[in-house]
Amino acid sequence: MDLNPYKFEAPFEKYEFANYCYLNDVDLVLVPTAWMNTTWKEDWKQEDVDHYTKLYESEEPFEYNVDLKEKDNLILNQYTPPTYTRSYPDSQTALYWIMRFAPFYANHFTKPKVVAICNRSGIEGRAMYAGSSSIYRFNGRDLGRTIDVSVFGSLGQGNEGILVRDVEV
Fold first, then answer.
1. This prediction's pTM
2. For a Cys staple, 31 with which of 64, 112, 117, 161, CB 3.0–4.6 Å?
3. pLDDT, tens digit (0-9, with 9 covering 90-100), for 36-54
């Protein structure tokens, strides 16, 4: 929850964590987290839990992702399949993570800043996690109204796996 406003009391645009990283010239940020899937709702009924649990019952191979795939760049286009698809990132969550690092694209710097978000996936009790572990590089260039961020990969929202990339910092 470090990406969110402290205790949800600080102003949303304060970006305490990202500002701390920016002001202290942090080049590599590792964010282990258990972020909820945007499909999940706090008021899920048992039939909702049963529906998504059934989707997870089908065995999927452990994803060892060493190659950029077409789906890795879909998050920047706000693409989410019309139905929940385990192998695709939760694009709304991934875009939110990028947005919470606004100081990394609102300011300019000479060395890139790399952010690796390692998020839990799957269902536990009534909670469904977003998966979508991703690696981003904020390049620090002024592109006008465009965010200068490179996506080096994303895992699916419902697949366990490892995302491996060589990223220059």
1. 0.87
2. 117
3. 999 888 898 999 999 888 8
Q: How many structural domains does the chain have?
A: 1
Measured CA distances, 76 to 14, 52, 66, 94 (Å): 23, 25, 20, 8
Question: 33 in a domain, yes or no?
Answer: yes
Distance CA 120, CA 34 (A): 5
Is 151 a domain residue? yes
Q: Which residues pair with 129 in a beta bridge?
A: 36, 122
Domain that holds residue 103: 27-163
In a domain, 35, yes or no: yes
3-state SS of 95-152 is HHHHHCCHHHHHCCCCCCEEEEEEECEEEECCEEEECCCEEEEECCCCCCCCCCEEEE
Each residue's pLDDT tens digit, 110-140: 889 999 999 999 889 889 999 999 999 998 8
- Per the structure block, which two tokens stand in for 26? 């942090």
CA nearest 87: which of 72, 67, 66? Answer: 72
The residue with tokens 């989707």 is: 55
Instruction: Give the dihedral of Cα atoms 41, 96, 24, 154; nearest 10 deg.
Output: 100
What tokens does 149 get?
């961020």
Domain-located, residue 12:
no
